[in-house]
Write a structure and sequence with these properties.
mainly alpha, 14 helices
Length: 471
């Protein structure tokens, strides 16, 4: 086995999946919000809801396309870099990923065409139904990906036959308690990401003094939704911690930088873990039993330290330790901003608080950072296992893969993805800067189904003097 090829393959997969997850974490929540906007427009008849819908539909279309393009590479890597994992776990993972294609991509693609080109061709209720189906498709996509990943985290419902993981109980796989705390956790993260990005856009417009009506809709709906969902995210985050305590003690020990068994346990808030000497430097620590209470909901529970685990089964300590704290810190800041912003929106004073508007606008990267660091905690903390406890990452790699091949593919992926990201972000920025059009937007006469991007080629209002659609 080429250890350099293994490292490069891990870096490549980490890079591509980190790049890819940015877009689903945005579009899943945005698709559901579009459904709510369309329903509000039908219920109230307010033109502003329609204008905001058409505006965000363009952005959703671009982000959705970028997510699909960046996600296709995931499946190829299973064959090129991780063929042993594909061979051994294919009867389970292959089925789960196929279900994602059939129930998610097909559903999204079919009804997304209606969203782009069918506004004038279908009844209003049918258009709303199509919007809901796109949102449902994105949710299905998240479910099947989390089902697959949760099985890798805590494998259940299988037997080993001739070195192959064969499913013997799909009910256990699809209704694993681990899946049903991880899936809502990811879904909430996507909804919060969409809500705060929408709110940040509204804050940006108010700071620039444009699109006032649409900006207030974005701020009100985005901040209210985030303020409601963020406490629930804390609950599901805690439930995720409970499964880690019971099923992945090495990951929890790394997250807590806990070197020795403790009963009851203390809680390290901040420190610099000194892995070589198995100690924490500059530690800010809560005394016992805070660690037991936070990790196990008990005042007397025993918590496992890394000293009780064989060193070859340790995950890298620094990454899960710091990434978890970055994620928690982002959550805390988002909560403060969402609650303060919601209060001022309720009082009708949000437009006068420029400092808070700046905080809302500049805080738009926080949900993306929280999502990425959450995944880093989960995936790096799982090491050195690909399928926890039964298949090591080193044994999952393609046996004949060379460092040279891995290096070339890593460089190519980084270059291509960087170009795609730069193009996509720049295009989305242009759409955001142009803002919602004053008139209701319909595809131009040149928009055709085999050129989906043509739907956003029509004229858009970009001048700073546009005041937005009427209330």
């Amino acid at each position: 086995m080429d250890l350099t090829a293994l490292l490069l393959s891990r870096l490549q997969f980490a890079f591509t999946i980190s790049f890819h997850i940015i877009f689903p974490s945005f579009t899943i929540g945005l698709a559901m919000w579009l459904t709510v906007l369309e329903a509000l427009h039908l219920a109230t008849g307010r033109p502003a809801y329609r204008v905001v819908f058409e505006f965000w539909l363009k952005i959703f279309g671009v982000a959705f396309g970028l997510g699909v393009v960046s996600g296709i590479v995931m499946a190829f890597q299973f064959g090129t870099n991780w063929s042993e994992m594909a061979r051994m776990s294919g009867p389970i993972q292959g089925v789960l990923l196929s279900y994602e294609t059939f129930t998610a991509f097909f559903l999204e693609a079919s009804f997304f065409g209606i969203l782009l080109f069918g506004r004038s061709r279908v009844a209003p209720w049918s258009y709303l139904f199509s919007t809901a189906m796109v949102a449902l498709g994105t949710t299905f996509s998240a479910f099947w990906i989390l089902a697959n990943n949760s099985w890798m985290q805590v494998p259940v419902g299988y037997v080993v036959e001739n070195g192959i993981f064969v499913p013997n109980d799909w009910f256990k796989i699809l209704f694993s308690p681990v899946l049903w705390v991880r899936f809502p956790h990811m879904l909430l993260a996507a909804y919060i990401t969409g809500a705060l990005c929408v709110a940040a856009t509204g804050a940006w417009y108010l700071l620039r003094g444009i699109f006032a009506a649409e900006a207030h809709i974005m701020l009100r709906m985005g901040l209210y939704l985030a303020a409601v969902l963020l406490p629930f995210q804390l609950v599901f985050g805690h439930l995720n911690g409970e499964y880690i305590v019971h099923h992945q003690p090495s990951k929890m020990a790394a997250i807590e930088a806990r070197w020795h068994d403790e009963q009851p346990a203390s809680e390290v808030l901040l420190a610099w873990p000194d892995v070589e000497n198995r100690r924490n430097l500059f530690a800010i620590t809560l005394p016992p039993p805070f660690g037991s209470l936070i990790d196990s909901d008990s005042l007397t529970a025993a918590e496992v330290g890394l000293d009780s685990i064989q060193p070859e089964n340790w995950p890298p300590v620094l990454i899960p330790f710091f990434s978890f704290r970055i994620m928690a810190g982002c959550w805390l800041v988002m909560m403060m901003v969402a609650w303060a912003g919601s209060y001022l929106v309720h009082k009708g004073r949000i437009a006068r608080s420029r400092s808070l508007l700046w905080a809302i606008f500049l805080g738009f990267p926080l949900p993306f950072i929280a999502t990425l660091t959450g995944w880093f905690t989960a995936e790096v903390g799982r090491q050195p296992w690909t399928v926890y406890g039964v298949l090591r990452t080193a044994d999952a790699m393609t046996p004949f893969l060379t460092a040279r091949s891995a290096e070339i593919s890593l460089v190519v992926f980084c270059a291509v993805y960087s170009f795609i990201f730069a193009f996509g972000v720049f295009y989305i920025y242009r759409l955001l800067r142009a803002g919602p059009a004053g008139q209701l937007v319909t595809p131009s006469d040149t928009a055709i189904p085999n050129r989906p991007m043509s739907v956003v080629d029509g004229p858009v209002a970009s001048g700073p003097h546009h005041a937005g659609a009427g209330e």
